Amino acid sequence: MQVCVIGTGYVGLVTGVCLAQIGHQVICVDNDAQKVKLMQSGQSPIFEPGLAQMMAANMEAGRLEFTADLRVGVERGEILFIAVGTPALPSGASDTRYVEAVARGIGQHLNGGYKVIVNKSTVPIGSGDWVRRIVLDGVAEGNSEHTNFDVVSNPEFLREGSAIYDTFNPDRIVIGSSSERAIDLMQQLYAPIVTRQFAQYPDLPPVPVLVTDLTSAETIKYAANAFLATKISFINEVSNICDRVGADVTLVAQGIGLDTRIGHKFLQAGIGWGGSCFPKDVSALVHTATDYGYDAQLLKSTIETNRQQRLIAVEKLQQVLKILKGKTIGLLGLTFKPDTDDLRDAPALDLIDRLTHLGAKVKAFDPLISSARSHPDLTKITLTTNAEDLAMGCDALVLITEWQEFQLLDYTHLASLMERPTIVDGRNYLDAVALTNAGFDYIGIGRPRVD
Ligand code: NAD
Asked: Where in this chain does the record put each UDP-glucose/GDP-mannose dehydrogenase C-terminal domain (predicted)?
């Protein structure tokens, strides 16, 4: 099938590359000319495991192209994916201006033939009908007569860091539309994934496809992220209770996770959730609820608990070091999760802000972040390129991101380089006993200290 993906970020580029990999003819459009140039030369503008190689192979096979010209993409595509960003506005509502610009542009360039316009971006509930109207406005502006299209909501559930695996092995595919023709085309598009032709575990039953109306599909995306964020805020709240009563949250999580109604996933206590989706999506759902006269108190608490949790490492540092002014704190990791270079709304940024406000010197080492150009807040800190340089002269380390390589560090050596070998394990990721034996004062989240 002829596919056009508009917006080549973490979602759009992975979608485009994976659809090419399963045999479709894909053209990806981005309005960032520099990014397009980079991709045309065979390089990926983002880090995602396996992406660069798969991208190169599909370009080589002639199934994947890149352009900055929306007209070319719209004319060629039978299925047009909108995959641009929908960041949060200060009010918490979703900023839909990029989606609006793309929908208008699609309308202006619509040519003959039936098209399916797919909202892959996470858009506020009710956007499906709004996109239809904006496309029609664009059609009128473009003096065209082509209005042979339907709008579909096809929310994306991939996780950065395992985006390719998730695309080929999804838990479900949601298709929201009132048009049978559009639903049928979407099912054809995803057939190789549904039948697990490209899956890691081909013997599993077909991927469930849930066909819904537009509004329900849009709500599914927000409800899924709000539920996951709430589950993490829940265990973080339990961890704070554990800290006070002397229980170990990792054992508590194990104990409740064995209940199949609860399950083990998303029960790792730590310094809170972040990234480009959970914060903005939970806020947007609260905002939508308010717009429709409902006070979403549980979700507001999910957000507030997380806001406080992000600073829990500072409290723990203050308990040990007392005054932080003039102390040097080293951050192991910066990104909101491992295997990504995405720093959007990462808890590390709040921590940097608080620690520098308190007068601490902050250093950081992250395997994928080597330049302060990655985020303006990084100009306030010193970036190092290895754990030894990070530890040198530090009063304490804080583990922020569960990069696998952090489990393999020589902590005895790191302890010898520090002023005072203290580590706050912000993800309960390291071996508390081993770290203590290496000479560290190990402080976990919601866990008693090792004797
Ligand atoms: P991103 O910021 O990484 O990428 C957006 C891309 O769109 C950028 O390359 C930008 O240059 C391009 N763009 C902006 N305006 C454009 C225009 N007018 N024409 C063409 N290109 C344009 O965003 P992302 O993280 O890929 O997220 C995209 C959407 O998917 C968001 O709605 C997000 O909520 C949703 N989503 C993201 C994830 C994730 O893990 N990142 C997961 C599920 C859903």
From this structure: 330-432
